[in-house]
Design a protein that fits this description.
Length: 299
């Protein structure tokens, strides 16, 4: 009765609101994270997966993973995938945010159409881009040949030189709308008086963008890039539906490699090892995100 009376009077209500999400995070985020780190230091097979006490392996799994001949190719592909995806999503998203910031007739519903890609499941996006990137009858090859950019068809999904870029193109398309929306919100928060004063002082459009827009968007840009890194490292569906990491690991990345070790080779310890490395990268990106939005929260 004392607990209910405390909630009714308002005392302890804040503590209850804090305890509910904390309990959720503890059991569904923190404990699985600890379990994953523990698995990376143990010898794990299908028969001992449900146990906690298993033979201790130390850093053996880390050594064996990074001693694999494909390990550094996978890591290089991961870096290329993240950097290229984030760069493409940010540049196109920022351009669209500036474009829709002109507030022309129909801008609102046209902006809404760009959200279609963001709400689509990854496997659906992968199926669509399988058709677009088809070597025999794909739309992309048709357009490139129509403009005279290529003479022969490119087999985007099966050519080792293009397979990774096939997934990058699809991922850029998937994430552009997310970048556009966040950057549009940041642009809307810049006072129009600053642009008017700069224009009166003789600043051209580029000077206004460089001295007003970019400095005022610093926190938003940091948040967009940090979240983009996290979401890109989580991207699995496009690899599963477009290239399956092939051919010959040419499009394999860390997240798909971790899945392959765990659910194809059934070596859960090595899968957990790769996941731990990715978790460290995501934690760094999360710290950058929190720091970039700190002054916004205080404001």
């Amino acid at each position: 009765m004392g607990i209910f009376k405390s909630l009714k009077d308002g005392k302890g209500f804040d503590l209850t609101l804090t305890a509910i999400p904390f309990t959720f995070l503890f059991f569904l985020s923190f404990l699985p994270l600890v379990y994953n780190v523990l698995m990376s230091l143990q010898e794990v097979d299908m028969f001992s997966l449900g146990q906690v006490i298993r033979p201790f392996a130390g850093l053996k799994n880390y050594y064996e993973v990074f001693s694999r001949p494909e390990a550094w190719l996978v890591m290089k592909n991961t870096v290329i995938f993240v950097v290229a995806s984030i760069t493409g999503q940010f540049i196109i998203g920022f351009g669209l945010a500036l474009f829709f910031g002109l507030d022309f007739p129909g801008a609102s519903w046209l902006r809404g159409l760009f959200l279609v890609s963001w709400v689509m499941p990854g496997l659906v996006v992968g199926a669509i881009w399988n058709l677009v990137l088809s070597g025999d009858f794909g739309v992309l090859n048709y357009l490139l040949k129509s403009f005279g950019i290529i003479d022969a068809n490119i087999f985007w999904r099966s050519d080792p030189h293009y397979s990774l870029w096939a997934v990058i193109i699809a991922n850029i398309w998937l994430g552009v709308s997310f970048n556009m929306i966040l950057l549009s919100v940041g642009l809307a928060g810049i006072p129009g008086d600053l642009y008017e004063a700069a224009e009166l002082d003789g600043a051209n459009a580029f000077q206004r963008f460089w001295t007003i827009t970019l400095p005022m968007m610093r926190a938003t840009i940091g948040a967009v890039i940090s979240l983009g890194i996290i979401f890109t490292l989580q991207q699995f569906d496009l690899f599963a539906s477009i290239t399956s990491g092939g051919p010959n690991n040419s499009s394999n990345v860390a997240q798909y490699w971790a899945w392959h070790w765990s659910f194809k080779e059934y070596d859960f310890a090595k899968g957990a090892t790769i996941s731990v490395v990715m978790i460290i990268v995501v934690m760094i990106a999360s710290v950058i995100y929190v720091r970039s939005t700190r002054h916004e929260v205080r404001g």
